[in-house]
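pasting for ref
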Amino acid sequence: MNKESISLDNLENIKGNPKALLPIAVFLVLYLGMGITFEYVLKVPMGFYNIPIVAAFLVAIFVACIQNRKLNFDKKMNVMAGALGDRNIFLMILIFLCAGIFAGILGRSSASAAAYLLLDFIPSQFAVVVLFVVAAFVSTAMGTSVGTIAVVSPIAIEVAGAAGFGIPFCVASVIGGAMFGDNLSFISDTTIAATSTQGCAMKDKFKVNFWIALPAALAAIVIITAISFATEAHAVVTGDYNLIQLAPYVLVLALALAGINVFAVLLVGIVAAAVIMVGSGELDFVGLLGHIGNGISGMYETIMVAVLVSALCGLIRIHGGFAALLDFIHKVFKGHKSGQLGVGLLVSAMDVATANNTVAIVMAAPIAKQMSDEYRISPQKTASLLDIFGCIVQGLLPYGAQMLVALSAIATAMAADTTAGSVAGSAANAVNVSAFDIIPYMFYPFLLLISVLAFIAISPKKKKS
């Protein structure tokens, strides 16, 4: 093959080269190895999230750059630049920024309003189900499971203490609802990454995704309700809220479901959020600018990871790494249904290694795209599989951000009650809570796995174009 003709648009003649996958192995050793060391050996709080993931990707890119001496450094730079110049990458970055601004303006008080609103009107036996539903709504509207868990978990702990439910049960229900919403949200970074890399519209992915996620959510609600009625419940905690702060969430959700362009949806949502937050006196103009800046800053690492992963994948692909991986997949997974399972296992393995479902989706996406063509899987179905399997694994990881944030909320509640001179109520129950106490109550991810496997078993092939 003529060296001058190598480009990301002419890959069909590239031969498989397993050695080209070495940069991914280097990244996994650095990130996963140091994460395990920090978290479980050195006992560093939030150990996995003290690892600079950007630095780990930079090392991986350096390894990729010193491979394949047939290409000089300038040509490798051109390959990386070509990967970064893809319109889907640019689209992803713009949407990330807009989503960050929207979430930044509204902050946590708006999400708390959704929780306390519903808790005001329901009997105590349904409190945990409401926590699941609230977390699902807030996560769908905000586009972040971690942010939702950070907001709703303290309320869940209060509900557990006041109503007599176990903290693991309440917190697990919040995590499950948050993963449901994040998986379906139009402004979630996982949805953006999955749809933009597979070249499908968000509403089309939503239609496929919804009918897989809904049965799992309904089954989870039934199980949560049954456990709740088997528990002797007391009064439910309430709090203050401002109803008008829910309007931007509802507006964004309605416009997105109506199929409006995602940029238009986010711009309308940003304007509505700014007007409402300033008009209600929650923010002044200076505070508004600060929240916008914080929202943008919160997306920097996600954007940088997307950029670096794209550059890395460009080099791995041109060196024959993806061709080698596809050769292996062809030997193991044969046919349309097993190809879908292969996509799911691919992103699941990436998620276990990185503890970040967005990063896992971005890393798996180029290979998934090729598998989609090979196994005649529609783009919207591939995007759904990437997002769903990432959701399942991320929700159950003991060292995932979602679980760590929930455990942090429990520890904070315990510390607050202890400072107040009491270890009764929620704090007393929280003393020995670990991730492995919460995981058995994570009904939604387990049910989602069953649902997606059933979907794969019955789904038809994409028609030949």
